[in-house]
Amino acid sequence: MLINSIFFINHSGDIFLEKHWRSIVSRSVCDQFFDAQTKAATPEDVPPIITANKNYLISIYREKIYLVAVTQMEVQPLFVIEFMHRVMDTFTEYFDECTESAIKDNIIVVYQLLEEMLDNGFPLATELNILTELIKPPTIINKAVSMVTGKEGVSSVLPGSQLSNVPWRRQGVKYANNEAYFDCIEDVDAIIDANGTVVSAEIHGNINCNVHLSGMPDLSMSFINPRLLDDVSFHPCVRLKRWENEKILSFVPPDGSFVLMSYHISTQNQVAIPVYVRAMINFKDGQGKVDITVGPKQTLGKTVDNVVITVPMPKDVTGCSMTTSVGSYTFDPSSKQLRWDIGKIQPLKVPTMRGTCTAPAGSQCKDAHPTIHVDFKIMQLAVSGLKVNRLDMFNENYKPFKGVKYITKAGNFQVRT
User: Fold this and answer.
1) 391 and 182 in contact (C-beta within 8 Å)?
2) Average pLDDT of the chain to the nearest whole number
3) Which of 62, 173, 355, 408 could form a disulfide bond with 322, CB atoms 3.0-4.6 angstroms apart?
4) Contact by Cβ (8 Å): 146, 152
5) What is the DSSP string of 170-237?
6) Is the dihedral of CA 14, 20, 24, 28 positive or negative?
């Protein structure tokens, strides 16, 4: 992979930071990206790969920021996209957030990180534990010392882990309390038609880890039903051979937070839809009727929380008057979005919202069929049925505290009307 330049572009289309390797690339290379940004209905609709004369523009969009990488040769786009996501994740760990203001406030550290993460256009140090040893996070004390002494926060000593066969873990780690937490988080993407039939459904899952263990522990994780996982990707610490042969995750973990495994389940008979939405939205003679009911479906008795229903109304709608049995609603006249905040669904009280919408006479609303967007969160449930069987530690004598948590939440969950 060879990246010539990376441009940071805000939501308004202004380049607020750029970094070049090998040679300086003119900002005019982004003109075709700006054209695509103007034509896109939403920021997520901008094509991730754009050909611009002799250059390729590969972009991602996160936290209202576009990262646009410029390469002058054919490369694997997913490598570049993954690297840019790693850059954003690193900024988030360093600055607690990855916004335009946070990047501008820590511009020196940003350039130092980019210089270490990419060497002459090729990825070099992308593991967080190596970077934190090389470049100190910008605390108030570090900033004060840098201002007084004039020294940069870059270590003159190469991290020992960079030369070891376990580059993702620093050496000499010691904790008073040894603990390891694992969060199995699943996003449900689904499209459901007006009759309640599932058109498509898939699950995107991650196992996020927060590990604080002394020494050099060797962990192994087994699952009750690993055959569910047919499309997986792993952190470099996972031993692939053991997974292929035994379906066991064997690894020496990095120190701190990291994503151990990502997986994708797209077989519809394995994707349980945890909520149902019955909706009727009709427009006639300048007035629309809305009737929406929401409830739990396949949750194994777990509570559905943080439920939000969003209905993008036709542009001619001027107002909405609703009555809700649970929660509250708002209508934004500028974005034409009707939002219903339900919160927690109680077992004995089914949430309903009924009311009317108004539009000028002669409007084209009667042919409108808005698509409803659903958000929800269910704690202690992995809707795929994935479950950790056991977690063992070797190579160390102490007994750590271990915890596993399951979370199911809505990804791109749509209901057609």
Assistant:
1) yes
2) 88
3) 355
4) yes
5) -SS---SS-EEEEEEEEEEEEEE-TTS-EEEEEEEEEEEEEEE-SS--EEEEEES-GGG--SEEE-TT
6) negative
